[in-house]
Amino acid sequence: MTDWRALNRANWDERVPVHLGPRGYDMAGLEAGTARLNAIEEAELGSVAGLRLLHLQCHFGRDTLILAQRGASVVGLDFSAPAIEAACALAERLRLGDAARFVQADLYDAPAAIGEAAGFDLVYVTWGTLCWLPDIQGWARVVSHFLKPGGYLYLAEGHPAAQVLDDATPLPDGRPRFFAPYFHEAALVLNESRDYVDSEARLENATTHQWIHPLGHVVTALIDAGMRLDWLHEHPAVTWRMFACLEADAAGLFRWPDKPWLPLAYSLRASKAG
User: Considering its fold, how many domains does the chain have in total?
Assistant: First the structure.
């Protein structure tokens, strides 16, 4: 059996130096203490000052540390050792070691690795996370495990309706064609050497396994895990150039060039029963 987790981890291990490199993430704002999240989160998240916050699949911790700079006490978790090493180094350099802790573990092993059941006011999960997880019910149970009664999840993610499309064989007008069925349950085995941040980088660990999780499955998984849906928003824009034809707007989001054909992102808030 293919070790999908090892393949995915190797891919993300390789991305860490790319994303910290000269054509990677903009780190100047973080260093200055003025960094902003993406426009969607900035409009929806609200104040995190004084909150105990868990950031799942945090990569190298940029957003985690932005939230720490805004007054949250944060724990970031990721399965990539180089990502967590970079996050810890960043926290020390920014003198945020007392506000931020980072843990290396697989998402499904988080309850044992972190050890703070019902210890968080907010679980924060954003952008390109759920597609790496085969078991959305198990993910929802992990989220619920960590939330205090009355605590909540903030999730912002690429829309699964857009994930059925791909640029591999574009339409004559440049829009992407159908790639996979919306209700496809098996892993999608992809081979993509390009990076979503640095277009010049070429990844050697290019084979990954990803999954499409229909929106109804995500919401139902959270409800089954003992949570209540507070709100659900669908967005005509997304935070990265998901398809080559998308155009950047003034807020730094990417939209269809003519009409909002399909939603490109969604976000939700779900609360743990009190």
Answer: 1
Q: Let me know: does 272 contact 147? Beta carbons within 8 Å.
A: yes
Query: Any idea what the CATH number is for the domain that residue 226 is in?
Result: 3.40.50.150
Residue 50 CB burial class (10 angstroms; 0-12, 13-18, ≥19): exposed
| Integer CA distances (angstroms), 116 to 83, 85, 142, 147, 204, in order | 22, 21, 11, 9, 37
Whole-prediction pTM? 0.96
For every residue of 142-191, DSSP letters joined together read HHHHHEEEEEEEEEEEE-TTTTTEESSS--TTSPPEE-S-TT--S-EEEE
Structure tokens at 37: 């999240």
Spatial CB neighbours of 190, under 8 Å, sequence gap ≥ 6: 207, 208, 209, 210
The residue range of the domain holding 23 is: 4-272
pLDDT, one tens digit per residue, over 78-117 is 999 999 999 999 999 999 999 999 999 999 999 999 999 9
Cβ–Cβ < 8 Å for 161, 189 = no
| Whether the Cβ atoms of residue 179 and residue 131 lie closer than 8 Å to each other | no
